[in-house]
Amino acid sequence: MSTEEKILNAAARLLEEHGAEAVTTRSVCQAAGVTAPTLYHHFGDKNGLVRALVDRGIAEFMVMKRAQRHSSDALTDLGQGWRDWTDFGLERPSLFRLMIEAARADPSVTRESFELMRGYLERLHGEGRLQVKPQVAADAMWAAASGVQALFMQGMAPAQIRSTADFLYQAVVAAVLKPV
C-alpha cells in the first residue's frame, strides 16, 4: 500500500467513525503513522486531503454504478440503481455528505450518474412504458434524489432516509409510467 493510500484510508476511517470534524491533519497523521510534512507532500493541506477523499469516493461510486448488471427490465435496473445509490449513502454517510457538497459546488461530477439513470428511462420510453418525455422523467427522478440528499445533509436517521427514499422513488415511478 502506498503512503498516499495509507493516509487516505486513515482519513476515511476517521471520517466515518467520528465525522468530518475528526479529520484533522494531526489525527490523520497519527492514524496513518506519518508526519505532517508527508501528508502535506501528498495532499498540500487538509482541504487537498478532503478533496482526494471525495474524489476517491466519487470514483468508487461510479465504478459500482458502471458495474451494475443490466437485466431485461429497465424498471428493475432503474430501481436497483436507486437502491445502490441509497445504500452507498447509508453505508458511508459522512463521505456521502462531502460528496453531495462537492456535487453542489461542481454539478459536472454527477453528469455520468445522471446519464446512466437517464439511460434506464430512455429504455422505458423505447418500450412505450413512459407517459412523459424521458427528460421530464429524468428531471423528476433527479429532483427526488436531491430531496433525499437534503435528508442526508440534515443528518436524518438512516431508517427515515431509507423509507423516504423508497417512497419518493415509488411516487416518481408511479407518476412517469403509463398505468398498467
UniProtKB/TrEMBL annotation:
DNA-binding region location: 24-43
Coiled-coil residues: none
Species the sequence originates in: Lysobacter enzymogenes
Source species taxonomy: Bacteria, Pseudomonadati, Pseudomonadota, Gammaproteobacteria, Lysobacterales
Name under which the protein is recorded: TetR family transcriptional regulator
Gene Ontology molecular function terms on file: DNA-binding transcription factor activity; transcription cis-regulatory region binding
Gene3D superfamilies reported in the protein's UniProt record: Tetracycline Repressor, domain 2
Keywords linked to the UniProt accession: DNA-binding, Transcription, Transcription regulation
Domain HTH tetR-type: 1-61
Cited InterPro entries: Homeodomain-like_sf, HTH-type_TetR-like_transc_reg, HTH_TetR, Tet_transcr_reg_TetR-rel_C_sf
